[in-house]
Design brief:
single chain, mainly alpha, transmembrane helix, MetI-like, transmembrane
């Protein structure tokens, strides 16, 4: 009994240490965003600002076009999420309901594709977009985000489809409904929570993405928010710390809100279909 309690205490201690490891950078970011310039250069930094101010936020909006960059990120992320879900839903249905050699190979490819680093993908994607004349365009960036989000969307939605009882679809087929009608009228409403979670996850992934946007977008008016944040760092590598922290804090808020909403949905999507009826 003592061994079990000690092991549990050790697990909780490790969890708390991990949470602190994740939370401390964000707390320091928030603290820095509200510190006046004299506290940012102080020899004895503090966690809590002694004289909180909003001057960093005003300066951030004055120095860089944050609203325009946020709108570009919103357009790219929302479009990528919608397209990824529209493509992934029927594909996930086929992969979940038809157990053939082709679907097994496709499932394996979905898992393997997640191990590919960005560097291996950017060159072929760049060449494809160049031939399509979509370099330095938001639609081209959306295509890249869809390609990147589609494997995970398929994986999540396949689990949700498998959790839907096949007997409901069989009953609809007996009543004369075709495959498309069954998918639209029977399966899709039951998949609504999974579709929402998948769309929101694809949105957050595209919202936070930096590497593809940096390589593909060159016109300042088309750059996304993560790329614009790098403009707060000067040519000599010296960061304008206060405005940078304020802008980064604002850019982080949408991701935190969305993850707080969908974290339970994501967990259930990963576990869906693991238990057979």
């Amino acid at each position: 009994m003592r061994t079990r309690k000690s092991a549990r205490a050790g697990q909780y201690a490790a969890l708390l240490a991990y949470l602190a490891f994740l939370a401390l950078p964000f707390l320091w970011l928030v603290s820095t965003a509200f510190k006046p310039p004299r506290e940012l250069v102080g020899l004895h930094p503090t966690w809590i600002p002694q004289d909180p101010t909003l001057v960093n936020f005003r300066q951030a909006f004055d120095e860089q076009p944050l609203l325009r960059a946020a709108l570009n990120s919103l357009l790219a992320a929302f479009s990528a999420a919608v397209v990824a879900v529209v493509l992934a839903t029927p594909m996930a249905y086929v992969m979940a309901r038809r157990r053939t050699a082709l679907t097994r190979v496709a499932s394996g490819w979905v898992v393997v594709s997640q191990a590919f680093p960005f560097v291996l993908l950017i060159i072929p994607l760049f060449l494809v977009l160049k031939n399509l004349r979509l370099i330095d365009s938001v639609p081209g960036l959306v295509m890249v985000y869809v390609v990147w989000a589609l494997p995970f969307a398929l994986w999540m939605l396949t689990g949700y489809v498998r959790a839907v009882p096949a007997e409901l679809e069989e009953a609809a087929a007996v009543d004369g409904a075709g495959r498309l009608r069954i998918l639209v009228s029977v399966t899709a409403p039951l998949l609504a929570p999974g579709i929402a979670a998948t769309a929101l996850f694809a949105f957050v992934t595209a919202w936070n993405e930096f590497f593809f946007a940096l390589v593909l977008l060159k016109t300042p008016e088309k750059q996304t928010l993560p790329v614009v944040l790098t403009h707060f760092i000067g040519a000599e590598g010296v960061a304008d710390l206060g405005p940078l922290a304020a802008a980064a804090f604002l850019a982080t808020l949408p991701s935190l809100v969305v993850f707080a909403i969908i974290q339970r949905r994501i967990t259930s999507g990963m576990l869906a279909g693991a238990v057979k009826n």
